[in-house]
Design a protein that fits this description.
The complex is a heterodimer of chains A (282) and B (269). By secondary structure, chain A is mostly helical. Chain A is built from twelve helices and no strands. In chain A, helix 9 packs parallel to helix 10. The longest helix of chain A is centred in the C-terminal third of the chain and has 38 residues. Helix content of chain B is 38%, strand content 23%. In chain B, the strands form two sheets. A six-stranded mixed sheet of chain B has the order 6-7-8-3-9-10, sandwiched between helices. Chain B is globular and about 55 Å long. Classes of the chains: A mainly alpha (282), B alpha/beta (269). The interface between A and B is medium-sized, with 30 and 32 residues.
Chain lengths: 282, 269
């Protein structure tokens, strides 16, 4: 038995399948191709605005937006709005994720909690968050508590549902194996069910991250005196069109960076999962 | 050493029925079996005869409809401490998020009150016993099937159980790997003095490995043959399998299985 042969093919997964292309490098297979497309779209925007093809006060040149954006960054004004926004978002997001995982585990693992909570989940889940925002304002006012509550509540459901599915799909053989080693009850939940459901939980967390960003902006647009959502809306009301676009541009960058960070963390935590699924498929 | 009048492991009147569409099916219909400490007992039978069910009942994973399992005079009621069950589906039974090392340590961490260093030492010991030293940091899915089953065996043995229950543990590996695993299990059994109950559908494997082979009949199953295997130890994959006694045991068991299946011995040979 020669161990080196047996494991040669199996290594921790690479992020992308690097296929040796032909000698001419196939640019359209790389990330730069899509980045180039963004640059093209921005250039078209610039041309459309500069040539007067879209004659509107509300449609500044891209370059002007970028200059304004840079000025707002340098002056610290944008960051001053972004920091409280991100703080609210993360506070709400983490509360929502923690509750979503906890409830999802309970519902997936204990029939009692499923019977108790499934109907109420299905009734609350479809309500769009802006609809209950006025109610929440009545109870929590317009300060951070309200926004954190809104974000947490909206982030909860995707995590809850995915955690529940993850728990339900734990391999019964794994549960039985754990039982033969005397692992039952809460220990089983913590040691086997939670890690086994982790890939599902991460899927839910990623959806919730996008939701948290949306609800953060909405809640700031409705009621706030700071934050990026407030900044965008007040810029629009003050006809500061370039500032308005700069705010939206900031959100695009924030969303992109957050997602990349999330993927990086997920790849680390779930490294085992990718190799495992590849093996299962073969 | 088997001087006590009380049998080490005993099954009394094990019945198991399953609810099925249009009534109940009787899988096991009164299985009585007494197993001595330190023996290697194979349970054979055609597929679907309930041999895996019987093993799971012994492991305390499922409850019999009636009858009971006693280990050293204690009734089995849930997985007993001194019994470990090795699943047929090793790919699903190993925890994919744990490395080989963490998998092997799993039972130790949960069953024994051992300090960390002792767990690490024993983990190393059993990894080397199944010849996987150097693979501690690998994940199960980075290993071949035979190696994965060795991880599962090491994980089971590291708890130093008195009884090892194995459910067709080698049915999913190729023939050569299988021979290697057979030798491994036999040598561990002899070295550690444990009791092994081994379910297989392979008569040759049963005879070669065991000190006793029990054949179950078709469902509703009872013990059809209970055959002590008096082949000399150590055994050899080639020499032992050529002994006239070996062939005689094999012939008797096959004849029994074929008769159950309604196959003529000549036609099936």
């Amino acid at each position: 038995m020669s161990p080196s042969i047996e494991t040669e093919a199996a290594r921790l997964p690479a992020t992308a399948p690097p296929k040796p292309g032909r000698r001419v490098s196939l640019i359209w297979k790389t990330r730069w191709f899509g980045v180039g497309f963004i640059v093209l779209l921005l250039a078209l925007w610039e041309i459309a605005a500069a040539s007067g093809a879209v004659p509107s006060m509300s449609f500044p040149r891209m370059s002007a937006v970028m200059v304004t954006w840079w000025e707002l960054i340098v002056s610290g004004e944008l960051l001053g709005e972004l920091v409280p926004s991100l703080w609210r978002m993360f506070a709400g997001y983490f509360v929502g994720v923690a509750l979503g995982v906890a409830l999802g585990l309970l519902m997936g693992y204990f029939r009692f909690f499923y019977s108790l909570l499934e109907p109420v989940t299905e009734v609350l889940r479809p309500i769009p968050s802006p609809a209950y925002l006025p109610i929440v304002i009545l109870f929590l006012g317009i300060d951070d508590e309200m926004k954190i509550f809104m974000i947490a509540f909206a982030s909860l459901f995707p995590v809850l549902l995915n955690t529940y599915s993850g728990v339900r799909s734990v391999d019964p053989i794994q549960l039985q194996t754990a039982r033969t080693f005397g692992v039952t009850g809460w220990k089983l939940l913590w040691q086997i069910v939670l890690p086994s459901a982790a890939p599902y939980i991460f899927t839910g967390m990623r959806v919730s991250l996008a939701v948290a960003l949306i609800v953060m902006v909405i809640s700031e647009m409705v009621a706030a005196s700071s934050g990026i959502g407030y900044f965008i809306l007040s810029a629009q009301r003050g006809f500061k069109i370039r500032e308005m676009f700069a705010g939206v541009l900031t959100l695009a960058i924030v969303g992109y960076v957050l997602n990349r960070l999330f993927v990086a963390i997920e790849n680390r935590v779930l490294a085992w999962h990718y190799g495992y699924t590849v093996q299962q498929r073969n | 050493m088997a001087n006590s009048t009380r049998p080490f492991l005993s099954l009394r009147g094990i019945r198991k029925t399953f609810a099925a569409a249009g009534g109940t099916t009787i899988a096991l219909n009164g299985v009585d079996l007494e197993i001595e400490r330190g023996s290697f007992v194979s349970v054979i039978g055609s597929s679907g005869c309930g041999k895996s069910t019987l093993l799971q009942i012994m492991a305390g994973l499922i409850e019999p409809t009636s009858g009971n399992v006693m280990i050293e005079g204690c009734k089995v009621d849930g997985p007993p401490r001194n019994v470990i069950y090795v699943f047929q589906q090793y790919t699903r039974s190993l925890f994919p998020w744990k490395t080989v090392e963490r998998n092997v340590a799993f039972g130790l961490e949960n069953r024994e009150q051992l300090p960390k260093e002792a767990i690490a030492a024993r983990t190393r010991e059993y990894i080397s016993l199944v010849k996987l030293t150097g693979f501690e940091r690998h994940y199960p899915w980075q290993l071949s099937g035979g190696m994965q089953q060795r991880v599962a065996i090491a994980r089971a043995l590291a708890c130093r159980p008195d009884v090892l229950l194995m459910d067709e543990p080698f049915s999913a590996v190729d023939a050569l790997t299988r021979v290697g695993l057979q030798e491994l299990v036999r040598s561990l059994w002899r070295e550690l003095g444990i009791t092994v109950v081994f379910v297989t559908h392979d008569v040759d494997e049963g005879v070669y490995l065991s000190t006793r082979v029990v054949a179950l009949g078709r469902p509703p199953a009872t013990v059809a043959i209970d055959l002590p295997i008096e082949l000399p130890h150590p055994r050899d994959q080639i020499a032992t399998r050529a002994l006239p006694e070996y062939l005689d045991y094999r012939g008797r068991l096959l004849a029994q299985l074929f008769a159950e299946e309604g196959l003529a011995a000549r036609g099936a040979a």
